[in-house]
Amino acid sequence: MIPELGHFALALACVIAAAQAVLPIWGAWRGDARLMRAAPALAVGQLLALLAAAGALVWSSVVSDFTVLNVVQNSAAAKPLLYKITGTWGNHEGSILLWALILALCGGAVAGFGGNLPSALRARVIGVLGGTSCGFLFFALITSNPFLRVWPPPADGQGMNPLLQDPGLAFHPPILYAGYVGFAVPFAFAVAALIEGRVDAAWGRWVRPWALTSWCLLTCGIALGSWWAYYELGWGGYWFWDPVENASLMPWLTGTALLHSAIVVEKREALKVWTVLLAIGTFSLSLSGTFLVRSGILNSVHSFANDPARGVFILALLALVIGGSLLLFLIRGPALASGGMFAPLSREGALVLNNVLLCAICAVVVTGTMFPLFAELLAGAKISVGAPFFNATVLPLAIPVFAAMAVGPMLAWKRATLWPALQRLWVGALVALAVGLFSVVRWKLLPGLAFGASAWLVLGAVADIGQRIRFGAIGLGASLGRLGGLRRSAFGTAIAHAGMGVTIAGIAGMSLASNSIVLLHPGESTHLAGYTWQLDALEDGSGPNYSARIATISLLEKNGDTRAILRPSRRFFPLQQQTTTDVAIRTTGFVDIYAVLGEERDGGAVLRLHYNPLAPWIWIGALIMAAGGALSLSDRRLRVGAPARQKAATVTA
Amino acid sequence: MISRRWLLGLPLGVATLGGVAFWRMLGGMRQGTFDPRGLPSALIGKTVPDFDLPAQLPSAQGFSNADLHQAAAEHPLLLNFFASWCVPCIEEHDQLMALRGGGLPIWGIAYKDQPGAAADFIQRHGNPYQRIAADAPGRVAIDFGLYGVPESYLLDRTGIVRWRWAGAITADVASRQLQPLLQHYA
Asked: How many domains does chain A have?
């Protein structure tokens, strides 16, 4: 009964979304205030229906209703409760439902927080979101329905891929999807602006918080995914240039560009056409990335059950959404009058440089990801583009981005001079140079460059705040007073830029990581990174739905003191006939000590041991970036809401 | 303003090109001519590696690569790796029975299988195989570079591998890929 209700709710959501796509936009076209007012109600209705559908699927999974095909294929009675819940979005059908739910959440958020938008704009934005929702709900109903039944029900389900039985999976997809799908809102704003034929400073101010929210979530989502790959897959790396990873990186790059170019629209009314294109492009990349993986075209470790027939449907949807919006862009783009002029050397100029470089990196990533496919299609050649290509092409483009990142926020709008900005940065420049030179001499060129860039970014962020509070120019007390009065968005920028610096330091540290693969018998030991790694014991263990082999490794200092004890294990899941490795990681915050238990041979075990300097900084930096974004967001909400709130206060007074 | 118009149309143009390419890829995947996951077999255009395997069932003989060559000289044949524990093999089985009925000799190698289980499998689903050899340790499979079971190889009359299919041979695969090759090498 519950699955039928869920199925019905899904169909209802699809119908409401269709109404949401048609009525408000028609109303805005005709100037009919009643139809426009229907938009928020429809958006909330669609959200409620999808919440019911998602609730029904979670319920079916929690009570192990094996008449539901999706539950049979992805769950089992013995699965822990947490994974019964999170497992609902660990498969194709469930993840599409989650995707649609988040899109509906975006519509609901625009309905809820968009009270200060002009009603025609709000109606159009909600309408565009409804149209997109409708397409994907239709897709879910026709090709990926999670509520299909099986009869007779099997005694037990087939269980879930053990790799996915991890708390990381509980949070990674929802956050990542929220980031992906969140860019639907800037997209809807862009399409609405194209329909209206008007982009102005107010539009920039409305779009930016949405872009910023999605960007923060996407940053967290990518970081979580990378961290999950690091500790769960046990390959010892954090980024593999896998198509699915690239698919999340592409919208992040253009989304970052969008975030910055929207500032220019808001402050200077320039770069309008470009910003609209970025908003469309970012969501298009999110869409194509997520769905090309589902069609089976992109080859990846994140394999979903794929099916070319499903792919044709997806392609038609993408053509409609992306092709339609780009066609609109072609037709209405020229109507968007460009505004403020600026000199090449100015805050705007720096932001344009940032945009160009970020988009160039994105183009490189797109090329690297798609090239093998196109080569096979056109020339029939099997080739693989791996990490060397990406490292060789992304790095030269990233270095100027880092160089400009510290200088940009110091430049004045419209027309700036480079010299005063550089004067304020001389301490940072000197330290960065010293750090860079030291690292180049000590290690290699690339880590040296990266450490230098990292110091440059962190110190540049400090110098930026220092300049704003006029540290050193006025008294310390006055500076502290200015610090308290500083806008949160200024802190946000500085923190996010410094976070990038921390991530780069982590990446540089990882490039100095050392590892070794050894066959050890209990009692034997090996040397790596100045420590003695000793295998103490190999024993059996068990868990709720697996049995395990556990190794105990002690890490000994030179003087024989025990630094840490690691217990990596190998788990065998009998239901899926699958073995996973459970990595043991000890971290000091500066270094990760990482051990993986491999195959066992003649009483000994193959161990993979890693010594990863600064590895945690990669994800800490990403969290700092997201925190900077969130801080900036809290400022924006206050300022956008401020006039309305003041009015309300006078009324009550 | 013509050039500006062109510039604004550029994103649409790029997206359209991408869309057309993906359309062709999807079409190719359906017909089996485009397979981004496929790994080209090193055996295509070569003879099969040397092996000599015992019988899987008491009722049928085992065979070696020499037996295979001798049989292929009379009629192109399909060499099929399968296992009773493999679910796609059940899916494929009907198709193998149909091909056998159409006159194609099929020789089977049971991959890492128990003798009793394989006998049950054949009894329940029918026997499309002329001979079934047992590769219990999976050594011969390694020499073949087996991707998984089921996996099939088409040998022409000179004993050279002309086609390899990793995964179940569905009706689609049989009609679109295997049949044309059979006519060509008949």
From this structure: 4
Q: Is residue A651 part of a domain?
A: no
> pLDDT tens digits, residue range B70-80?
888 888 999 99
Shortest distance between the Cα of B180 and any Cα of chain A, in A, equals 20
Looking at the predicted structure, is the pLDDT value of residue A348 above 90? Answer: no
Nearest to A401 by CA among A440, A445, A358, A450: A358
What pLDDT is stored for residue A472 in this prediction?
72
Cα(A459)–Cα(A504) distance, integer angstroms: 14
Token reading at A404: 């400009």
Q: Which residue carries 């025990």 as its tokens?
A: A562
B46 part of a folded domain: no
Task: Mutation target for A interface from B22, B170, B176: give the one with most A CBs within 10 A.
Answer: B22
Identify whether residues A153 and A256 lie together within a single domain: no
Residue among A277, A298, A370 minimizing CB distance to B11: A277
Q: Are A298 and A158 within one domain? A: no
Find the CB nearest B25 among A318, A323, A373.
A373
Q: Looking at the structure, do residues A239 and A148 belong to the same domain, yes or no? A: no
ipTM tops 0.90 = no
Cβ within 8 Å of residue A524, ≥6 positions away: A534, A535, A604
A318 interaction partners in chain B (CB closer than 8 Å): 19
- B45 domain-assigned: no
Partner A contacted by B24 (CB < 8 A): yes
How far apart are the C-alpha atoms of A631 and A216, rounded to whole Å? Answer: 10
CB contact under 8 A, B15 and A284: yes
Q: Tell me the two tokens of residue B135.
A: 């590769």
Q: Which residue segment(s) compose the domain that A291 sits in?
A: 185-395
Domain that holds residue B161: 52-185
Residue B1 in contact with partner chain A when CB distance is under 8 A: yes
Q: Classify residue A173: in a domain, yes or no.
A: no
Angle between helices A92-113 and A33-62 (to 10 degrees): 140
Closest CA of chain A from B150, distance in Å? 18
Q: Which pTM does this prediction carry?
A: 0.81
User: Which stretches of B32-86 are DSSP H helices?
Assistant: 65-74
In total, how many domains does chain B have? 2
- Yes or no, beta carbons of B29 and A311 under 8 Å apart: yes
Inter-chain residue contact A377 with B1, CB threshold 8 Å: no
Which pLDDT tens digit goes with each residue over B61-117?
Answer: 889 989 988 888 888 999 999 988 777 788 788 889 999 988 899 999 998 888 788
B19 and B103 co-located in one domain? no
